[in-house]
Amino acid sequence: METLPGELTPEPAAPDPAAPGATDAPGDVPDVAPQLRGLRRRRGLTLEAAAQRAGLSPAHLSRLETGRRQPSLPMLLALARIYGTTVSELLGEVAPERDPIVRAGRSEPVEADGWIYHQAGGPGRALQALRVLVPYATRADIVRVHPGEEWLHVLDGRVRLALGDAVHVLDPGDSAHFDSLTPHRIGAATRGGAELLFVHTLMQSPVAELCLGTGAPRLR
Predict the structure, then answer these.
(1) CA 63 to chain CA mean position, Å
(2) Where are the strands (E) in 64-183, listed by range?
(3) What is the rounded distance in angstroms from the CA atom of residue 214 to the CA atom of residue 114?
């Protein structure tokens, strides 16, 4: 069996003491071994390097990859993060085909902390696209810091964007693209409010938090 440089050759089957994060391989559990090995190699990781990131011994990861052990759900989540994929892919599931077209009026707008969100992109994507109505002087105009990237484009009104210690005023047609780990605050700079397009990479955030809202979302 081909191995990467520095990778251990899978050891022959042997009794394996109980270890956290794995179970004996039952017949009704999907065989994840081929996906585990293939994804690791596509990432260019040796068995030792991947095992160290996952907090496992190389021998233990080898057993997972050869099907002699089955990982638990927490272990699958950890390995999916390391390999930059999803648990569904590890399990060999095929994602349903997504409709690339988002029709106007397909979904109801959502309100949180005075901000009104219209879904402008498809659900379940790594990029979340929204059309946002920002009223003047709401409590959602507070500083946020979180993982991801943000891009916004002003459609109407003026937007006040604070990035770290700098404050920018954006007019219609202006855009901003920034790392959202930078402390930032977004608000309308005109009393009539502002409308903007907003794209965010933090897929797991609920709509109410994507654009800085903190309250429970409400359908309009």
Answers:
(1) 29
(2) 69-71, 110-112, 115-119, 128-134, 149-156, 159-163, 166-170, 175-179
(3) 10
CA atoms within 13 A on the CB side of 119: 17
Distances (CA, A) of 154 to 108, 118, 177: 22, 15, 12
Residue 205 predicted with pLDDT over 60: no
Q: Which helix (H) or strand (E) holds 50?
A: helix 47-54
With a CB cutoff of 8 Å and minimum separation 6, the contacts of 89 are 35, 39, 80
Kindly report the length of the chain: 220
DSSP conformation class of 80: H
Tell me which residue has tokens 């090995």.
37
pLDDT of 166 reads 96
Asked if residue 168 has pLDDT above 60, the reply is yes
pTM: 0.53
For 24, list phi and psi in degrees, rounded to 5: -60, 150
